[in-house]
Amino acid sequence: MFDPDAEEQRRYWAGIRRRRDPTHPAVEAFAASKLAFIRDALPGDARTMLEVGAGNGYFSRSFAEAFDLTALDASANMLAMNPLPPARKVEGVAEALPFADDAFDVVFAGNLLHHLEAPAIAVREMARVARRHVVLLEPNALNPAMLLFGLLKRAERGALKFTPGYLRDLGRGVGLRLRAATVLGAVLPNRTPAAALPLVRHLERPSPLGFYAIAVFDV
Ligand SMILES: C[S@@+](CC[C@H](N)C(=O)[O-])C[C@H]1O[C@@H](n2cnc3c(N)ncnc32)[C@H](O)[C@@H]1O
Fold first, then answer.
1. Burial 115-149 (b: 16+ CB within 10 A, else e)
2. pTM recorded for the entire structure
3. How confident is the model at residue 2, as a pLDDT?
4. What is the number of structural domains in the chain?
5. Among protein residues, the one whose CA lies closest to atom 6 of ligand 1
6. C-beta 13 within 6 A of ligand 1
7. How many CB atoms lie within 10 A of CB 89?
8. Domain that holds residue 143
9. Out of 70, 95, 105, 146, which residue is the most buried by the measure of CB atoms under 10 Å away?
């Protein structure tokens, strides 16, 4: 299996011109269920959050309502489309985060790690700058649609290994302690038509074949 390398990924994200806006109802529904699980899993006084690989803000828009959020991404192009204020957006790479140790209560990455050649290096960096918690969210390779997506789309090839167990082991592998985990999701932010939401929204609950795996860790 050949994963796209870092340079190929960089060119891919630099070339994205059109993505759904974070205010699209499908994107809002996609983010809301994940935010609800994560907010419930974390203590109420966990306030500052770094989002790594925030892209154009599918999570950032909702998460900024629940956390004091800073968004980092390697792509200036993606960050330019992210709705956070400029002072809250940082260009940088997950493998060498430009922050001090213990700088944020929570460090979160959603749909980033499967794009990296060495995800464990990024998770180790996340653990370094997290004072209390690390949250990982990735497509669930056990879901048939996600599996197919990974097989057909070159930029998604890395997702083929991201089972929920693999995600949990990534955190444990850098010494993090698992606090909560789930598999959920039936909304695809870029693809689910708004007209399908009334039906699909009901499927946004934990299921082994859900589209996304989430693992919440203590540092
Ligand atoms: C699939 S998008 C996810 C964006 C957002 N988290 C979401 O779920 O909509 C992956 C993002 O990771 C960024 N990225 C890729 N490699 C990166 C790296 N090494 N460090 C930081 N960001 C990176 C890309 O620029 C892109 O914005």
1. bbeebeebbbbbbbbbebbbbbbbbbbbbeebeeb
2. 0.95
3. 45
4. 1
5. 54
6. yes
7. 20
8. 6-86+100-218
9. 146
